[in-house]
Write a structure and sequence with these properties.
single chain, mainly beta, Hypothetical Protein Pfu-838710-001, 8-stranded antiparallel β-barrel, 4 helices, 9 strands, 41% strand, disordered C terminus
Length: 179
């Protein structure tokens, strides 16, 4: 079983942009209904992702936290396009930027559409307690806030968030993502 250990952060400023080593557009959609994931009847999210000219089927366990089971299987590009267009309830679009800091890769997702304005930095770790660099542009950690999970951005996009949800200061907003 594959385990992904990933931490998510907001970005504090745009200083990361000067260190970008590559960027790639990403389009993804969910094959398991988003509502089934939110109401607890699904045990995993199943998504189709296209990044550049490559495509994958991704299955990730539905649980809070930084470590989750994850499986990724390559898909033919044309099949992925068809699946996104006909089997998914919508498509989430973002640009993923790669930034290396002291040998560590940060993936910075800049969302588009109804999630425009949301920028999240992610880092995959070899262990949950691994230490990693904290560049000055790395902001508040949001790893345990479900509203920042891609699957939740379909039903409650960033454009609809309150000011408290955007800065993470509202306890009620934190709970909304758990429902």
């Amino acid at each position: 079983m594959g385990i992904e250990i990933e931490r998510k952060f907001l970005v504090a400023n745009d200083d990361w942009r000067t260190a970008v080593t590559g960027s790639m557009p990403i389009a993804q959609g969910y094959l398991v209904g988003v509502r089934a994931l939110r109401d607890g009847t699904a045990r995993a999210s199943v998504r189709v992702r296209i990044s550049g000219e490559q495509a994958w089927l991704n299955i990730k366990s539905v649980e809070l936290g930084i470590a989750r089971a994850e499986y990724e299987v390559p898909l033919p590009f044309a099949d992925a396009q068809t699946m996104l267009g006909t089997l998914c309830d919508g498509v989430l679009e973002k640009t993923r930027h790669h930034v290396s800091v002291d040998g560590w890769l940060f993936e910075i997702d800049e969302f588009h559409g109804e999630n425009s304005g949301l920028i999240v930095a992610e880092i995959e770790l070899p262990a949950a307690d691994a230490s990693f660099p904290r560049p000055a542009w790395l902001g508040a950690e949001v790893s345990h806030l479900p509203r920042y999970y891609n699957v939740n951005l379909f039903e409650h996009p960033f454009a609809d968030w309150s000011a408290a949800e955007r800065d993470g200061s509202d306890a009620a907003a934190n709970q909304r993502g758990n429902s």
